[in-house]
DNA sequence: ACATTAAGTGATT
DNA sequence: AATCACTTAATGT
């Protein structure tokens, strides 16, 4: 977490990501009331149990949102990219409760922090804000259904391949710098199992592997 | 050269 | 598919 970039950059980022979605007066209010924050790879933006004082809107980079059980084991729920918000956070903010999820940076990211008090005010004041929030809710819901489907109906090897492809799309590269352990954590599996499945994928010509690196041969 | 961390393997449940 | 108990390989200091 470093200091905010200059305000002209802030203005440009807001316009780039939200300009076409939100009305002008609201954009101005966002600009005035929000705080721009930079995060680095693997920084945690939200921890489970956090009291949320602001909702994040991702302007650049990608964030993964995961659940955590009492043993500290994770399960990846969905991703958030530029111009999107996290539905769970919205709820936490409006209900003034604590976070049920963890949000981690998959790459360096720039995030707009909006004070939670603004939520209610803008909900009443701006139609475009209501639509934005509802739309975001809907998208998150659909994504979560997709991962539920994956967990319930797909075999782990299919899930793994889907995971690799999702990551590649999101990060915009066919060369993933993940350890087998990290992948196992995201999918809530064990390292040994992931290693073996990856080996199969390599033999079948879908990927190539090196230490800390996985190359997808195609999307 | 040694310690640490990532990845591979066979056996067992 | 998970876990155990090692082994081997790659990296950092």
Average pLDDT score: 89
Low-confidence stretches: none
Note the total helix count. 8
The largest pleated sheet is described as: 4 strands, antiparallel
Word description of this protein:
With 219 residues, the protein is an alpha+beta fold. The protein is 48% helix and 23% strand. It has helices at 7-18, 24-33, 87-95, 116-125, 127-153, 156-171, 180-187, 191-203, and strands at residues 35-39, 44-46, 54-60, 63-68, 74-80, 84-85, 102-105, 109-115, 175-176, 207-210, 213-216. The structure holds a DNA duplex (13 and 13 nucleotides).
In short:
With 219 residues, this protein is α+β, with helices and mostly antiparallel strands. It has 8 helices and 11 strands.
Topology:
Blueprint: H1 7-18, H2 24-33, E1 35-39, E2 44-46, E3 54-60, E4 63-68, E5 74-80, E6 84-85, H3 87-95, E7 102-105, E8 109-115, H4 116-125, H5 127-153, H6 156-171, E9 175-176, H7 180-187, H8 191-203, E10 207-210, E11 213-216
Antiparallel strand pairs: 1-8, 2-7, 3-6, 3-8, 4-5, 4-7, 9-11, 10-11
Helix pairs in contact: 6-8, 7-8
The chain binds a DNA duplex (13 and 13 nucleotides) through residues 156, 179-181, 189-193, 195-196, 198-199, 209, 211-212.
């Amino acid at each position: 977490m470093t200091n905010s970039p200059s305000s002209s950059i802030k203005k440009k980022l807001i316009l780039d990501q939200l300009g076409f979605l939100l009305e002008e007066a609201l954009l101005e209010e966002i600009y005035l009331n929000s705080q721009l924050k930079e995060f680095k790879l693997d920084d945690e933006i939200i921890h489970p149990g956090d009291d949320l004082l602001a909702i994040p809107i991702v302007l650049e980079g990608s964030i993964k949102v995961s659940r955590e059980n009492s043993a500290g084991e994770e399960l990846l729920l969905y991703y958030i990219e530029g111009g999107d918000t996290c539905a769970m956070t919205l709820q936490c903010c409006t209900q003034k409760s604590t976070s049920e999820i963890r949000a981690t940076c998959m790459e360096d990211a720039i995030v707009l922090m909006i004070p939670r008090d603004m939520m209610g005010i803008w909900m009443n004041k701006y139609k475009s804000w209501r639509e934005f929030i509802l739309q975001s809710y809907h998208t998150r819901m659909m994504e979560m259904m997709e991962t539920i489907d994956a967990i319930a109906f797909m075999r782990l090897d299919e899930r793994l391949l889907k995971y690799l492809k999702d990551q590649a799309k999101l990060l915009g590269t066919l060369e993933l710098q993940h350890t087998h352990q990290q992948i196992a954590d995201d999918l809530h599996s064990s390292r040994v199992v992931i290693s073996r499945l990856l080996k199969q994928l390599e033999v079948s010509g879908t990927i190539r592997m090196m230490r800390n690196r996985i190359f997808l041969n195609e999307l």
